[in-house]
Design brief:
- The structure is a homodimer.
- By secondary structure, chain A is of the alpha+beta class.
- Chain A folds into two domains: 139 residues, 2-Layer Sandwich (60s Ribosomal Protein L30, Chain: A), CATH 3.30.1330.10; 189 residues, Alpha-Beta Complex (Phosphoribosyl-aminoimidazole Synthetase, Chain A, domain 2), CATH 3.90.650.10.
- Chain A is 39% helix and 22% strand.
- The first copy, chain A, has twelve helices and twelve strands.
- In chain A, a hairpin with an 8-residue loop joins β11 and β12.
- In chain A, α7 crosses α11 and α10 packs across α12.
- Chain A is globular.
- The N and C termini of chain A lie far apart (46 Å).
- Chains A and B meet through β1, β2, α3, β3 and β4 of A and β1, β2, α3, β3 and β4 of B.
Chain lengths: 340, 340
């Protein structure tokens, strides 16, 4: 890229000019009318989710390159679809941009976004670009799901095992390392890179769905409860319990954390990162014990049965080794806990 | 509303608190999971459109109450669906809000939005509320359309009549009256109110589709070309001609304008308002002459055949009374024309 191009600002080419530049990230023929048209498969329900991200609030040039901001925004929305059991159909991208923003920043944002989307065969099908004093990114993702396979927060029943599809705390650890590199002095480069990558390039767990439906075929009338852990593992379990009118017991030692944590963090720190760190974008699923074991086996590394659904309404953190006393988790306690 | 409530700010109740307050504008049961689930009819294609609106750029407290800003945002998105031939299924609303913004402002925005949406049986099915230094509204609307009835810009053919579904220029006249009340001294109150209302409460022409499909049944294989006139009537016709590789002749006296214009504006001003004013949210449709006549008859007041599609690529404004010389319309000329 020559220096003239790389210093070009949004106001130099205008919203319309920028939209034309961004069209190479979208499938041809989909753009050009007042709205995009997409095919859905017969008998499928439509699933829709939306996120707004604001510069300085949800992303920042300090810890996040434009490519990573784009990847993370796409991943978060695809994760919401995965959390409903839905396959993605497409996303729309609304951008509010200051005139002084570099065009190359926007192109790099789209580059990261499409890198993530292409991994899951998801096109950008529409968008809007407008002038705004603050860089703002509004993504709406839509997908489709067989109505019998919708995953809902409200479907957990007493006795269900709680499956966590991967390790928790890695994304928060990566963010901490970006903000305070000195924290990483006891980690080797590979360990640091892995944690930072977990923060910058989270993987929405759409792959879990294929395995889930394979295991469930003989029990297809079963409703699976679940959501993603974007706001933290504790939050996910509490939200599921609230929506389902049940409680849960989490087993301290069964909560999967990155191996690195064992020699890098105290057990208490590791627990905080895992429960309250957020943005790991794993799925938390509640299903009968036997199916849960099968799912964890198929998922492999990081997946675990982290607890079980109980009667009542409390979510208890239990340590079978009795090193920690039982703790009742709730959302406000969670956040206080983390900010200590 | 007591004064304590009316002065409450977004930061007093937080994003989560505000989301809870706004849920009364949404159908129960649709909200609560990571994403919303909607049914689509078998065999229909999904249509998606998105708009971002920024305080000070797209709306302003000077001319627009929060209710009107909400109505207009919803209407613009429904109009994009109508322009594709699609029936609305729902919208998602992403909000970026400064902490200092009054909660009542947001509730009034939602009030106006749902007033418009309810008229067209369209639910708000999801949303996101985040902190932002500038009030930002990102709406994504989705609808469904029988694939054989998709209206596209690219489907105009030589000989088609150009149907305009209603008067043009009223919205811009209303905005001018709000900004410069002194311009209205030759208008009575009823006339002023009607023009201002056209600006504040535009009506997306979803009603046109029902009439269109009734008229078209015997010719159902016919592709209709069209778009909405949100960016002005001249823009709509030029866009259709560009996408279809055709030209057009517009007949000056056939362009429908509000009756008020005849005794209030010079013919030249009236023409500028009609061609370049924008935000009338009417439909511009291209179809065979006979069907066009039937459609105009069914639509009644304001609807007209304003011209015809020709070979070539120029869009000519013609005056059969020869008071004005023929003019070739193009987009940049349009804007220059209007800014004179």
């Amino acid at each position: 890229m020559n220096s003239e191009l790389s210093s070009q600002q949004v106001k130099d080419i205008g919203e319309q000019g920028l939209l034309e530049r961004l069209q190479r990230f979208c499938p041809p023929k989909i753009i050009g009318d007042d709205a995009a048209v997409l095919e859905t498969a017969p008998g499928q329900s439509l699933v829709v989710t939306t996120d707004v991200l604001v510069d300085g609030v949800h992303f920042s040039n300090i810890t996040t390159s434009p490519e990573d901001a784009g990847w993370r925004a796409a991943a978060a929305n695809l994760s919401d679809l995965a959390a409903m059991g839905a396959s993605p159909l497409g996303i729309t991208v609304g951008l509010g941009l200051p005139g002084e923003l570099r065009v190359s920043w926007v192109e790099r944002l789209y580059q990261g976004m499409t890198e993530c989307l292409q991994k899951y065969n998801t096109p950008i099908v529409g968008g809007d670009v407008v002038r705004s004093p603050v860089t703002t990114l509004a993504i709406t993702a839509f997908g489709q799901v067989n109505p019998s396979q919708i995953i809902r927060r409200s479907a957990a029943v007493v006795g269900d095992a709680i499956v966590v599809t991967g390790v928790h705390g890695a994304s928060h650890a990566g963010l901490e390392l970006l903000l305070h590199p000195e924290l990483g002095q006891n980690l080797n480069n590979e360990e640091k890179t892995a944690l930072i990558r977990a923060h910058q390039r989270p993987q929405p767990r759409l792959d879990v769905l294929r395995i889930l439906w394979k295991i469930l075929t003989p029990n297809s009338k079963l409703s699976i409860a679940g959501m993603d852990s974007s706001d933290g593992l504790a939050d996910a379990i509490i939200q599921i319990c609230r929506a389902s009118g049940v409680g849960a017991v989490l087993e301290h030692r069964q909560i999967p954390v990155p191996k690195t944590f064992n020699h890098w963090l105290t057990p208490d720190q590791a627990l905080k990162y895992a429960l309250y760190g957020g943005e790991d974008f794993e799925l938390v699923l509640c299903l009968p014990q036997e199916l849960a074991s099968g799912l964890v086996q198929h998922l492999g590394k990081g997946a675990a049965i982290a607890g079980r659904i109980t009667a009542g309404s409390t979510v208890i953190l239990h340590d079978e080794q009795k090193k920690f006393p039982d703790q009742v988790l709730n959302l406000s306690q969670g956040f206080q806990h983390f900010s200590q």
